[in-house]
Amino acid sequence: GGSDAAKRRAGERAAEEIENGFVVGLGTGSTTAHAIRAIGRAIDDGLDIRGIPTSFQARQLALAVGIPLTSLDTVDGIDLAIDGADRVVDAPDATAHGALIKGGGAAHAREKLVDTAADRFVVVADPSKLTDRLERSVPVEVLPDAHTVVADRLAELGGEATLRAAEQKDGPVVTDNGNLVLDCEFGPIDDPDGLATRLSGLPGVVEHGLFVGVADATYVGTDDGVDVRRY
Ligand code: DER
């Protein structure tokens, strides 16, 4: 991935949006981790906020840095969600401008729930995530029993699905929700919104990594600052 300095600038810049009393959606991955650590430091300086983690990893880090945690059924809403992405469409003239592929960390089901529930959702990224069109594989979280049936349906949609293998565990990656992940190659995705709708309609699909029309802004960390994209 991109440079850690760039990721850190993006994460810390996003954390500056947080105001006292906020409920904050805490994303997953190494870029958002910088925002979570910055929030922890702000809490040490007196900031009063509550966080809703999007994964076991986010929860562990939030606890480690002292962010008081809450849950969706406890709050009246989320003021701001901060999360990373694997790809961000950076093409101002394209209808897909601001569309994301997420799910590299297999956390996209709870991420999409929290990110879309928030009044405002900002992405934090380094330049390596920017693209003028989506052509990376799309992570699809599936019920374990469904993985072959969904793979067949994805093939009918022109996709080639691969069950995501674990690195330090024999067998497949198992998500925080107890499900499996199919990484699906579609080639260049010219209609991400249409594909997102088709994927969501497949029985056995829990969630997919196309986030279309949900991000409000992206903070792109560079080697000497932060660029902001507003959608
Ligand atoms: O899984 C996700 O969508 C995460 O946001 C992740 O892919 C981004 O991870 P990174 O910030 O470590 O690149």
Summarize the structure.
The chain is built from six helices and 14 strands.
Distance between the termini: 24 Å
Q: Which strand-content bin applies to the residues?
A: 25-35%
Mean pLDDT reading: 97
In terms of structural class, how would the helical and strand content be classed? alpha/beta
How many β strands by DSSP? 14
What composes the largest sheet?
6 strands, mixed
Could you give the order of strands across the largest sheet?
A: 2-1-3-6-13-14
Radius of gyration: 17 Å
Helix content: 25-40%
Globular, elongated, flat, extended or rod-shaped: what is the shape?
globular
User: How many separate helices?
Assistant: 6
As residue ranges, the low-confidence spans are none
* Secondary-structure element series: HEHEHEEEHEEEHEEHEEEE
**Could you tell me which ligands this complex binds, including any ions or cofactors?**
D-4-phosphoerythronic acid
Oligomer: single chain
Describe this structure in words.
The chain is an alpha/beta fold and 231 residues long. Helix content is 29%, strand content 27%. The protein has helices at residues 4-15, 30-44, 56-65, 108-117, 147-156, 192-200, and strands at 23-26, 50-53, 78-83, 87-89, 100-101, 118-125, 130-131, 138-142, 160-163, 180-185, 205-208, 210-211, 217-222, 225-230. It has a six-stranded mixed beta sheet with strand order 2-1-3-6-13-14. A four-stranded mixed beta sheet has the order 7-4-5-12, covered by helices on one side. The longest helix has 15 residues, at 30-44. The protein starts with a helix and ends with a strand. The model has no long low-confidence stretch (mean pLDDT 97). It binds D-4-phosphoerythronic acid (DER). D-4-phosphoerythronic acid is lined by residues 1, 27-31, 83-86, 102-105, 107-108, 111.
